[in-house]
Amino acid sequence: MKNVSALVDKNGISMEKIDDSIELAKNWVLYSGIQNYGKRCLVNGAFNSWYDVDNKIYPYVYSEVSGYGISFYLYLESMREDNELLERAILSADWIHNYALIADTFDVMFRFYYHENDFWPRNSYSFDNAIILNGLVLLFNKTKNEKYLDISTKIAKRLIDVMQHDNGSFYSYYSLDDGIKLMSPDSWSKYPGSYHAKNAIALLKLFEITGDSFFKNSATKVCDWSLKQQQNDGRFVSVKTDESTILHPHCYSLEGLFYAGAIMDNDDYLQSVIKGIDWIIKSQLDTGGISSTYVQGKFLPTERCDALAQSIRLIILALNRGLIGEEYIESVLKMGKRLLQFQCRKPGLAQRGGFYYMINGDNIEYNNINSWATMFSVQALIMLGEFLNSEKNFDINFLL
Fold first, then answer.
1. In what order do the strands lie in the sheet with 111-113?
2. Are 267 and 299 found together in one domain?
């Protein structure tokens, strides 16, 4: 690839910096306490949401992130066999099964609050269930333990039968106490949206394992519906009340469409990804980062780590597949350099190596060392490093 070395030098990013950042972050995920390990059984194996630097606490245990944790460990384990990584993935999966999963309905509860010693609010989210489902399917593929396939199949059938509309979209969440499906248009995560295209990833994996077209049909329906939500400029609307776009769920939409497009060889889905990436590039800031929010026709200067890492992954995936050309390389290198600046280098086991959640327009860090943002960042940096070394061996089944 022409001039890549020159662009790397120009943008001040190196494999040494990337490798150092990855190792610090991996150690943080394993040993900082962000995953409860060896603690009381009620939370053992579960992931906390983030570390609050100011108050020195983990606010709550997060079921969705525990699902991401399974996939994250298995991704790392796929690159080098490591019993500790597999053990940690199993621990997270078993916590979900034993404590977060409602046995008679196969809904996964939302957040466990330490001060309440319970899950609250008692809601179950379609997207969260799909992320957990993805981790469990990957774990079945690794271990061949039928328990994880049985759980996965039941979660998926519940998700489709109860939460998916005929047009392919999904209800956002479900009240476990009231037994009703809910949605709220003032919050992207509480409303049916194109981000539910990411549900297709786990459903297509289940189809591959079981051969049951029920799962493939559901995945196709949500991707077809999501495709229709894309605006002419390439963005997906996140919040209906003001027609704004949040980069994080915008990337979720593209991730689902990329996976489905690649697996099913659907060019419409892949063309949508190109349009969505082009819109992301338009929002790139002077920092090298990406605006996290587009509202009333303007990109705001706030930056989110998770969305930046997602953007890097999408561009690398598109470059590897030949969907976009070399003119995107400098942009992704700038993103990579900016992503490294989100990493906490301060001393202290609970924070050193993790990635800050957000930086505002004044370059002020929000004191939230974030679990899923760190996982996304590790994967983005590994993918960037592989790309710079002319490797195209990323297995999209491990896309977090």
1. 60-62, 111-113, 118-119
2. yes
243 lies in the same domain as 202: no
Provide the CATH number for the domain around residue 265. Answer: 1.50.10.10
65 neighbors 371 (Cβ within 8 angstroms): yes
3-state secondary structure (DSSP) of residue 362: coil
Q: Tell me the one-letter amino acid at 357.
A: Y
If asked whether residues 218 and 304 sit together in one domain, one would say: no
Number of domains in the chain: 2
* Residue 198 contacts residue 261 (beta carbons within 8 Å): no
- Say yes or no: 21 and 114 in one domain: no
Q: Which domain holds residue 83?
A: 61-227
The set of residues, in sequence order, having a beta carbon less than 8 Å from that of 141 and lying 6+ positions away, is 205, 209
Phi, psi dihedrals of residue 394, rounded to the nearest 5°: -70, 130
Q: What is the pTM of this model?
A: 0.96
Answer whether residue 120 is part of any domain.
yes
Point out the domain boundary residue: 166, 196, 227: 227
Do 78 and 398 meet the contact criterion of CB atoms below 8 Å apart? yes
Whether 387 and 251 map to the same domain: the answer is yes
Same domain, 220 and 309: no
- By three-state DSSP, how is residue 308 classified? helix
Q: What is the pLDDT along the chain (400 residues), one digit of tens a residue?
A: 556 666 666 667 888 999 999 999 999 999 999 999 987 889 999 999 999 999 999 999 999 999 999 999 999 999 999 999 999 999 999 999 999 999 889 999 999 999 888 998 889 999 999 999 999 999 999 999 999 999 999 999 999 999 999 999 999 999 998 889 988 888 999 999 999 999 999 999 999 999 999 999 999 999 999 999 999 999 999 999 999 999 999 999 999 999 999 999 999 999 999 999 999 999 999 999 999 999 999 999 999 999 999 999 999 999 999 999 999 999 999 999 999 999 999 999 999 999 999 988 776 668 899 999 999 999 999 999 999 999 888 999 999 9
Domain boundary among 200, 227, 254: 227
